[in-house]
């Protein structure tokens, strides 16, 4: 999974994936915005929470990972 913000890759975001009614599996994005979460194929809700101090909004996407192995999570900037 890759977290993408208004200025590019987002490091330090907490990325969690869960099936409906299931437990979350989480990882933290690295400097390249990528987080690796090992989950079986299926449909997931993926949540990315920015690191404290980053002026970004939490992002939520639903994606089918039965055939795809990568999802991009767009995080929007907060207004100043």
Explain how this protein is built.
With 80 residues, the protein is an all-beta fold. It has strands at 2-5, 8-9, 14-18, 25-28, 43-49, 59-64, 72-74. The protein has a 4-stranded antiparallel β-sheet with strand order 4-3-5-6, with no helix packed on it. The N and C termini lie far apart (28 Å). The model has no long low-confidence stretch (mean pLDDT 92).
Summarize the structure.
With 80 residues, this protein is mostly beta strands.
Helix % is under 10%
The end-to-end span amounts to 28 Å
Largest sheet: spatial strand order: 4-3-5-6
- Rg of Cα set: 12 Å
What class would the helix/strand composition place it in?
A: mainly beta
The largest sheet, given as strand count, sense and whether it forms a barrel, is: 4 strands, antiparallel
The count of strands amounts to: 7
Average pLDDT, rounded to a whole number, is 92
Helix-strand pattern: EEEEEEE
Our count of helices gives: 0
Described by the principal axes of the CA atoms, the overall outline is globular
Strand content: 35-45%
Low-pLDDT residue intervals, each spanning 5 or more residues: none
């Amino acid at each position: 999974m890759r977290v993408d913000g208004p200025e590019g890759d987002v490091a330090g975001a907490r990325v969690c994936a869960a099936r409906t009614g299931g437990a979350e599996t989480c990882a933290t994005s690295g400097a390249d915005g990528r987080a690796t979460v090992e989950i079986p194929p299926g449909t997931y809700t993926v949540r990315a929470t920015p690191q404290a101090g980053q002026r970004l909004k939490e992002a939520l996407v639903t994606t089918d990972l039965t055939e795809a192995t990568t999802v991009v999570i767009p995080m929007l900037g907060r207004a100043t």
